[in-house]
Amino acid sequence: MKILALSDTHSRHNDIHLSSYTNIDLIVFAGDWTGSVRGEKENTKDFLRWFSNLSSTYKILIAGNHELKVEDDPEYLLEALTPYPNIIYLQDTSIVIEGIKFHGSPYANNFYDWAFMTEENELSKIWDKIPENTQVLITHGPAYGHLDTVVRNNTSVGSKTLTNRKKHLTDLKLHICGHIHEASGILEINNHTVINASQLNEHYKLVNKPIEIIV
Description:
Number of domains: 1
CATH superfamily: Metallo-dependent phosphatases
CATH topology: Purple Acid Phosphatase, chain A, domain 2
Order of helices and strands: EEHEHHEEEEEHEEEHEEEE
Strand order of the largest sheet: 5-6-9-12-14-13
Strand content: 25-35%
Largest sheet: 6 strands, mixed
CATH architecture: 4-Layer Sandwich
Number of helices: 5
Number of strands: 15
Radius of gyration: 16 Å
């Protein structure tokens, strides 16, 4: 299965052109499509229209810490998704596609007063929901030490309990995340691939390319 991973467009989705990516089976978006909280509902409608029209057989979407309205009012997103049955939205849920088990979660460890964030002891309970036979994990926040380094102080800021949980996912092949813009890239670690698919850099400039991988 050929997967194209994106994340953290922050309302810049219309500036991303994917015509050079062909024969994509699945596009994964790992959260933070929202740019301005004030315009989140309008931004969401436009983003979903854009995402739905991308050329792929399947599409998986999770929310991120900028999707405050999604956390406050989950029904609003479900209603917005109604015209787009080709988008699979995961929120601490799983799905099997062509024999591959995917699990998605919008959560990350605490950073100011954003959406889907909590302390490590609570995150541990959320990560416990990840089935052990998950093959592709999609989370907005990265695991500690896995493409989570903040440039300004060279510090890893990912979830330590997620790193621990991943050790128990014996079938894990791929972990797609975002959130830490400057850590965008690919990492091979502990017998699986990690992709930080952030499209914007730490200055919110659109400089990173979508990442393509075969699973």
